[in-house]
Amino acid sequence: MRYALILCVLFAATTAQAQWEIQPAPTTADLRGIDNVGKGIAWASGSDGTVLRTTDGGAHWQLCPTPPGAEKLDFRGIQAFDEKTAIVMSTGKGSLSRLYKTTDACQSWTLLLTNPYPEGSWAGIVADNLGAGAIVIGDQVGDRFAIYASSNSGLKNWFPFEHLGRAPKVTISSPHSKNEKLFAVSNSILFGDSWNGLSFVTGGSDGSYLYDTIWHSWPADIYTANFGSKPIPMAKSASAGAFSFTTSPGCNPNLRGACSYVVVGGDYLKPDEQAGTAAYAVLTHAGDNPGRLKAAQTPPHGFRSAVAYDRTTKTWITVGPNGTDISTDEGRNWRALHPNPALHEPADADRDWNALSLPFVVGPHGRIGKLRPEALK
Questions:
Q1: What element of type H or E holds 209?
Q2: Listed residue (174, 269, 277) closest to 227, CA to CA
Q3: Is the whole model's pTM more than 0.90, yes or no?
Q4: 217: burial class by Cβ within 10 Å (0-12, 13-18, 19+)?
Q5: Tens digit of pLDDT for each residue in 288-340?
Q6: CATH number of 2-371
């Protein structure tokens, strides 16, 4: 009896209940973009020009009219601002990468920008919460990562990042390899904005790197910037590397204070391989630099495509095709979450996920979940 009790205690200490509530969705598209606005409003996006929205916390999801000419586009990123306004990003070679915007709850769409490079493909978009500024990033073209930004009202005009208003003349070329990749899986390789600093992560056969903006403002009326890069200890291959990263609240990529960086990924062709699936850095003082990110001591249980931070419980959560993991020690150690039989959750409620915007998660074949309020307590 004592031995059985010890086994039960050990099992409880290394697992937790996933408590993902599977929600009905009016689509079978593969979903890769999700953005929770708050107050019950969220938007999602995916293959075949699919855009969804909810205004009641996910109880009902509305299938939006597809932007004209976008029926075959793969919308891998979405940034929403309220119940009526959102930007959606498609990924694909050349003109298959586009940005569309709606301001009337997706009844009409405006084409904002089409990728001008035939050989390039977009991988991520980030926008501020007022919709006044946004940045889109794409694969290397020539010897530079393609980055476009807009800071005007309505996001009508877009410019190469180095020519934007405040004039950050940037060096964005990869000092490491032409094999560096940006993985457009969950729209979470990019963090920050054009005013406070920008960060993004890469992968590929020659390794993964975290790029951080380094600002220069001397003389005071001239602003320039370049990107410093730091290696990330992730899996290496053409299909592996860093797929998602985020920071704890209040962490500014340029004016760093006490905060944490967490990166997840791995090899998407080897979803059950645990090695090289997570890394972290803890910054304890203002002005600290992430320096060398460290590999997780206990990694997630396979390839992970997205990571997010829950402020209420101070918990990191990451998802992928074979499961869900959480960390309560800044990404050092991860433990698996599992469905809760008492709540009659499906046996696969913890898996087959692509992207996160808590409390929502999305995946293939129109799969949408919502984290129960008590899940991480």
A1: strand 208-216
A2: 174
A3: no
A4: exposed
A5: 555 679 999 999 999 999 999 999 999 999 999 999 999 999 999 999 998 88
A6: 2.130.10.10
